[in-house]
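Late entry, written up from scratch paper. The run itself happened at the end of the previous shift, but nothing got recorded in the book at the time, so transcribing now.
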Amino acid sequence: MARKDNPSIKAVIPKEEFATLWQDNFVIPKGAPHKENAEKFIDFILRSEISKEITLERQYPSAVEEAMDLLPEDFRTEMDVISKDQIKPESYILDVGEALQFYDRVWTSIKQ
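Output as recorded:
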């Protein structure tokens, strides 16, 4: 965590409008051959104690609020996590309609 090396680094929400750049998801593809095992794995990962351990190891905030509560106070402070109360629901990316084809072409050209 960069903040350990430089305490002046903090997470901030810009005053200007912004959109979240990512969100994490667990998905099971339609027709997955081991759907029950995938569901068990997701349930395992989302257990508070397991999510806490992942957060301690990866130093990446957990979406499992109970896991964040289990973290040592100094660790939570160092993470400087932006709370969900600070993020407005309208700040998430919305459907861009026909512009999606344009964005897809641009992203494809970047990946090549």
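Residues 33-86 form one domain.
(Scratch paper discarded after transcription.)
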